[in-house]
Specification:
Elements (H helix, E strand, L loop, with lengths): L1 E3 L7 H6 L18 E6 L9 H13 L7 E6 L15 E3 L4 E7 L18 E4 L5 E3 L6 E6 L1 H9 L5 E4 L12 E2 L3
Antiparallel strand pairs: 1-5, 2-8, 2-9, 3-5, 3-6, 4-5, 6-7, 7-8, 9-10
Length: about 180
């Protein structure tokens, strides 16, 4: 179940941790506070976290999230689509280049569709404890994850994910691979 966000402070740490969007780096999508970063490619599926990526990603994130921890979900306001009836009205946050409707809920809703007639999931996801951060920009066919070394290792060995390690200062348009899975 999703709850509306009532205070923009929930996302302040995100806004404070991003580098300017026009740098087009991983750090312009994911806050600069994580030990490691990963890129999850999903060619041909631009702009949202596809279910085929969200389904194997969710149990990995659950293993690295304290039990009972709520998560935050950001959905790009510019889709111009109608939300599912059970999606509440909420406030939005502005990163200076994108505006995101902000919701709170359990991680189980990560792979749900937010809109009527279109299976579009959240663009941003993070837990209350800020131990990881998932970002899918509307113009990219990849998702970036800021995380711990252990979470990164789990991402790299999951065969259903096209995951590679990247750095925060790598280009988000064509990120340089620093570590490949299974090499």
């Amino acid at each position: 179940m999703l709850e509306p966000c009532t205070n923009r402070r929930a996302a302040k740490w995100v806004l404070d941790g991003l580098v300017p969007f026009k740098t087009f780096t991983v750090g312009s999508h994911v806050p600069l506070r994580f030990e490691r970063y990963a890129r999850l490619s999903h060619p041909g599926e631009d702009g949202w976290l596809p279910r085929r990526v969200a389904v194997p990603l969710k149990p990995i994130l659950l293993r690295h999230t304290p039990s009972g921890t709520s998560c935050w979900f950001g959905v790009w306001r510019g889709w111009g689509l109608t939300y599912q009836p059970d999606v509440p009205k909420t406030i939005y946050v502005d990163t200076g280049f994108r505006e995101w409707d902000l919701f709170k809920g359990c991680l189980d809703v990560m792979d749900r569709g937010f809109f009527l007639g279109l299976d579009v999931g959240a663009n941003l996801v993070w837990p209350d404890d800020r131990s990881w951060f998932v970002a899918t920009d509307i113009d990219l066919d990849r998702t970036y994850v800021g995380c711990s070394r252990n979470l990164l290792s789990d991402l790299l060995i999951e065969c259903r994910l096209d995951a590679v390690e990247v750095r925060a200062d790598d280009s988000s348009v064509v990120a340089r691979t620093t570590t490949r899975r299974n090499e």
